[in-house]
Design a protein that fits this description.
This protein is α/β, with parallel strands linked by helices. The protein has two domains: 2-143, HUPs (Rossmann fold), CATH 3.40.50; 144-179, no CATH class. The chain contains nine helices and five strands. The strands form two sheets. Strands 3-4-5 form a three-stranded parallel sheet. Helix 2 links the parallel strand 1 and strand 2. It is globular and about 45 Å long. The protein starts with a helix and ends in a 13-residue tail after the last helix. The model has no long low-confidence stretch (mean pLDDT 88).
Length: 192
Amino acid sequence: MGHLVLAMTAVQHLKLDELRWIPAGVPWQKERTLLSGTHRAAMVKAAITGHRGFKIDRREIERNGPSYTIDTVRESQLAEPDAKWFLVIGQDQYERLPTWHEWRELITRVTLAVAGRDGKSPAPPSELLAVWHRIEALPMPPMNVSSTAIRAHLAAGGTAQSLVPDMVPTVVARYIDRYHLYAPPRGGVPAA
């Protein structure tokens, strides 16, 4: 639910014509991939269906190799050079931005649209204090949603339906439960 609220806030606050959801194909900063890109894309598609202006962009799933945001931004800007580009992220990713592949170039190409935690303005990490970048603070309401907590709940045998409507949209919960995502199978390793 947090991602949907963030996206709706971004569309309204930034007056966006379109917001692209880009599921990572091979998340390079993760030690292991919990789900295939196909499952991530299916959940995004389920979550955004019916939301005007939301579009799924599958380029990272279809690309071979690691999913680097800078590659996606370069490709998008080459295809649509006159568009104004925002990168919508939460405080957690803003803090990790200096660990991203070619982050210095990335921040020259986009305006960062950042949602702070608990309704507060986003706080830049120390590495970004010394580097010029465009930023728009997104006025997010405080939310008690954590993807880590959701995965832990599911890994402990809980159902996704029990997280509806506060943490997971109903259609996404159905998909998670149907494919037993994040739940450890008999072998003890979450399904991918």
